[in-house]
Each structure stands twice: as structure tokens, then as C-alpha cells.
Amino acid sequence: MSAAGERIKSYPGFGLLAATCLVLLYAPLLVVMVYSFNDSPSITRWGGFSLTWYVDVFTGVEAGKFKVAAWNSITIALMATVASTLIATSAAIGMTRSGQWRGKSASFALINLPIMVPEIVTAVATLIFFSAIGFKTGYLSILLAHIVFCIPFAYLPIAARLQGVSSSYEEAAIDLYASRWQAFRFVLLPILLPGIISGALLAFIVSLDDFLITNFVKGAGVETLPTAIFGAVKQGIKPNIMAISTLMLLVSILFVTVSWWIGRIGEKADAPVSE
Amino acid sequence: MTEVSDIAVQLSNVKKQYGEAVALHDVSLTINDKEFFTLLGPSGCGKTTLLRIIAGFENVTAGSVFLHGKEIASLPANQRPVNTVFQQYSLFPHMSVEENVLFGLQMRKVPTSQASKRAKAMLELVQLENFASRLPSQLSGGQQQRVALARALAPEPEVLLLDEPLSALDLKLRQAMRIELKQIQEEAGITFIFVTHDQEEALTMSDRIAVMSAGNVQQIGTSHDIYDAPTNRFVADFIGESNLLDSEVVKIDGDRVQCLLPGGLHVSSTVSDNNSSIKPGTKGHLCIRPERLSVSNAADTNGNSLTGVVVRHIYLGTDTQLVVELTHGQTVQVRTQNSDQGLRLPAAGETVNLHIQSGGSRFLSA
Question: What pTM, to 2 d.p., does this model score?
């Protein structure tokens, strides 16, 4: 590992390329983070350090709007996470523990298709679908759409983990007089848990910051945080937007880190049988 | 004839098919109570399938499985009083050693105090009482193996099934575990059904061995039986090393036969007792173990000796192996112990006479 690391550093141009990538990826984020602490109402001129805009987010004129939007975002994300993780876990177990059957690859493709389909297509299609069946757009339509597009994001880490879990664990449990449910509850589920948590965190984040589909299916009057921010930006960017963005960025980083960290713990806990 | 109550497992006419592929043709065998019984065969012979049928992980296509006289073919795996030691141990990685051993007892709703006493006794049996709170990943391969054994023994199964449990261990440990396994089996007083492709393992531990190939049982017998008295060519070839010489029966001589070798040589040999179909003219193979051939300097004219030229002389530490090309072209292996100081073994290129020790050759018609 370290040897390979040193080798890649010695490639000509590595430093330049890495620096360019880092700047392109993170400079805009950095600017937003720095200017969220700007004392001046300008978004380009530095007027000294202050927490004004963070206070504004929670107490300013737009605070009420953001609070409702944030509440919507979080409740939708939580429910979508629970529902999609349940569905994804069942699907993953079904796919990996059912042997070979006709249409298995097709099913796999169908489960993961939402990741590959351009989001705008999903958004338009979902909106058309809801209006075709006469489903009133609003909170519930957002939730349903979120559950659907979160499934593949929850599915992938769970299925990846399950692939590495030999079915002989469940056989061993059943051999030791466990029922199928007990084998799942006491053996497979705990082994799978890191994958399930990873999948759930990913689903949560994806739901929390979805804009496109939400914007299409939300209907009038209901906002989530991303659509609320977009609405505010249309009336001109104020530094409070930067403060909100920075807060959301922190939540995302936190979740991704926890997800990665849990995945790693899981890997370590069941290092494969050695020798 | 054994009493019914002395029979732990009886398989009658068990067939197993996966679609078109036949895994087991028509297997019938009887495993006695408290016996260390081994299913031995190359990979793909059906031995693991047979074990999984007894465990309840596979259904039979046809036939019956009896456990202590009771038909169990329709009983699900979690209701059969048999436990398995898996090839990869399959210890639950999130549970401590003790929790692993307790699992079967808890599933059987054994009262807690009784269960923990039993788990402790099992860990003592496999000498891991000081490792109870460790996780499986903190143990060596050999220790994990023993936990798997303790876990499977804890619920007091009527029969313990072992699926190549030693194959993941290194050679030294494997050899030590063979003796230990046999000891544990005797102490626990439980029927063991052991699956392996390693003939040395089978010969060391088993009371009886069933040699399997291509979904059939080829021979059932003690280690002695299958090594010294193989009933067919497969068993002779698979167990130990064998020289198999093309041969034809010329005369039946009581329980022995006179065989003709391609070079015109006549050899008197034993024959498998259940081979009533053998008569003069029957073609087959003469099986001679390499250690049953001895090098003699003088030409032996009593009919039980072969002549050839040494093509290879291989020193193996305890033994020396000679590869000898017989006058009619077939080659044979000869193995001689090196402790015999006085004997000078011929070098490559020398002509030797090979004496077939008495009872050292066996005619196999199949």
C-alpha cells in the first residue's frame, strides 16, 4: 500500500494534476464556506468574520420558511430511508440467496436502473405518472418518489456485503435448530448490519439533497430544503444561503464519514477465516 | 448381524439428481452407533451431497434416510438431531466463542444455567476454556476449528457430521487434529460421519470407510480392508499407490487365482471374495502395492517374481522408491525401507528381480 502510494507520487505531473483536480472540486465549496462567515451582506467582498448569517438562518425573515422546509426534508428523508432500506434489504437477500432463476439479471438491472436513468427523465415521468393517476402532488408524492429513487442507493452496499457472506452461516444456524427467521434475526442480520447502515445513510443523504425530482413532484406550497434554497437564490444570493449550504455540507460529510467508518468496522470484525 | 438399535444412520437406495446431473446413483449404507465413519472420495464423488442429505440441507430425489430407525427424509434440517462441522467452520463472527457454543442450546431452549454449564464442558473438551470471551476472528485456524467442533457437539446430537473440517489447516496441525478428533469422538461417544478427500485422514481415524466415486459407493470396510483387499480398480488406485498390471485369469485355485501377465509370467494371487463371476479367461488387473515388491538379487523361479530394468532410483528419506520397467514394457513402483542397512539397492540401468511377497498381489476384475 505505502509502496504503491510512493510510486504514484513519482509520476511526472502527478502533483499538478492532483492540485488542479482538488482546486476545481473544492475551491467553490471553500468560497461558500468562507463567505458564510462574512460580516458584509455582499457575497464577493470580505467584511470581516461574523456569525451574522447563521443567526439570520435561524431567526431572520426567511427563518420560518427554511424551518418548515428543513422539517419536510428531514422527515421525508427519514421515512424514505426506512422504507427503501427495508425494501433493499429484502431485495438483496432475495437476489443473493435464491440460486439461479430466469430473469435474475434482468431483475438486478431493474433494481439499479434508477441510478442510470437521467434524473430529469425520472422527474418528468414521475410527475406525468402522478397526474395521470390523479394523485395529488404534495408531501406524500415527494415521499413516494424519494422511496423509489433511494432503493438502489440502499441496495448496492447491502448487496455488496451480502455477496461476501457465505450462506453457510445461515445453514450453520439452521443446523443448530434455528428457524429461518431466527437464522436471519440472530445471524444474518447482525453480520449484514454494517452494509444495511451504510445503505441507509446513503439513502438518507440522497433523499436529503435531492432537488430535481422533488422540484417536479412537490406541487405548490410544499418545499424541501433544496427547493427552498433554490427559490431563495432566484431572488438574489444572500450570504444566508451560504450559511445554509455550509450546514447541509456538514451534515452530508458527517453522514458519509459515518457510513464509510461503519463499513470499515464491519470489514474488520469479520476478517475471513485465516489459514 | 447388528441389531436395529445399534444402527445410527441407514441410507437405502438414496438417489440425488440436480436436473439432468446425477450426484448420487443408488447409495445404500449403514452406519453403526458410536462409529467413526468416513466418506472418502475425490471431489465431485457425491460425498458432501450425501452428508448434506443426512444434515437435511438437500432433499433426496428418491430413497430413504433413517436416523436410529426413524425416517427423517421429510424432516427439516432444524428438527434433525444431527449437527455439522462445516468446512469453513462458519463460526458466527459477531458472537464470542461462548455465544457460538451456546447458540444451539439456546435455540433448543435449554435452561440458561444448564446451557452455560454444557458450553463450559464443551470448551473444556476442546481445551479452549480460556478463550470463551474471544471473537472467532481473534483465534487461529486450529482454534476456530475446535470451536466449531464444540459448537456442534454442545446440543448433544445423535450424529455429528464433519465436512472436510481439517482441510483448511496446515499439515502439522492437521496431523495433530486427526488424533485429537478420534479421541474426542471416543470421549463423547457419538457417531461421527466424516467427509474427506484425504485418504491418510480417513485411514488414521476411521472405524470404517466408504470409498466413493462418481455418485457410487465403491467399497465399504475398515482401513485394512480397503487398503489390503480393495474390491475394484478404483479403490486400489485411489487408496495408496498401486501397481496395476494388465492380466488374465488362467486357473481358479481355491480362494486364489493363477493370473497371466503380458510377458507370459504366471502369478498366483488373492481375489476379492464377492467376485464369484471370475472364471478362467476373465480379464482384469493385478494389483500389487509398491511395498509388497522386494528386490532380490537372485532370480526366483517359483513363479512369483517379476524381472525388469531400474529406470529411476529415488531417495525419499525413510524409503527409497524404484521405478522398474518390466520386460513386457509396463512400469512398476517399488518401495523399500531404508532402515534395511545390509541391502544394496540397484541403481538406474541395472536389471533386477522383484519378488512379490506372499499375499501381496490381488486380482481385480473391475
Answer: 0.78
Task: Find, in chain A, the residue whose alpha carbon is nearest to that of B89.
Answer: A273
Q: Would you call A178 an interface residue with chain B, using a CB distance cutoff of 8 Å?
A: yes
Shortest distance between the Cα of A176 and any Cα of chain B, in A, equals 4
String of b and e for A112-150 (b: at least 16 CB within 10 Å)?
bebeeeeeeebbeebbeebeeeeeebebebbbbbbbbbb
Closest CA to B38 of B209, B172, B292: B209
The C-alpha atoms of residue B325 and residue A235 are separated, in whole angstroms, by: 99
Q: Using the beta-carbon criterion (under 8 Å), do A169 and B90 form an inter-chain contact?
A: yes
Beta carbons of B103 and A174 less than 8 Å apart: no
Q: What is the pLDDT along chain B (366 residues), one digit of tens a residue?
A: 444 468 888 888 888 888 888 888 888 899 988 899 999 988 888 888 889 999 888 888 888 888 888 888 888 888 889 999 988 888 998 899 989 999 988 888 888 888 889 888 888 888 888 888 889 888 888 888 889 989 999 888 889 999 988 887 788 888 888 888 888 888 888 899 999 998 888 888 889 999 998 888 888 989 888 888 888 888 888 888 888 888 888 778 777 787 887 777 777 788 876 666 777 777 888 888 888 888 876 665 566 778 888 888 888 888 888 888 887 778 888 888 877 666 677 777 788 888 888 778 888 876
Choose the mutation target among A168, A174, A176, A180 for the interface with B, i.e. most B CBs under 10 Å: A176
C-alpha distance from residue B91 to each of A173, A232, B103, B158 (Å)? 10, 56, 11, 21
Q: What are the backbone angles phi and psi of residue A192, rounded to the nearest 5°?
A: -80, -15
Chain A: residue nearest B77 by CA?
A: A175
φ, ψ of residue A146 in degrees (nearest 5): -65, -45
- What's the CA gap between B86 and B246, in Å, rounded? 42
Nearest CA in chain B to A189: B94
List pLDDT tens digits, range A263-275: 676 665 554 443 3
Is B92 close to A274, i.e. CB distance below 8 A? no
A231-261 exposure pattern, b = at least 16 Cβ within 10 A, e = fewer: ebeeeeebbbbbbbbbebeeeeeebeeebee
* Nearest residue, CB atoms, A191 vs list B93, B152, B170: B93
How far B27 CA lies from chain A's nearest CA (Å)?
Answer: 23
Side-chain-side CA neighbours of residue B9 (13 Å): 31
**Residue A271: closest C-alpha in chain B:** B137
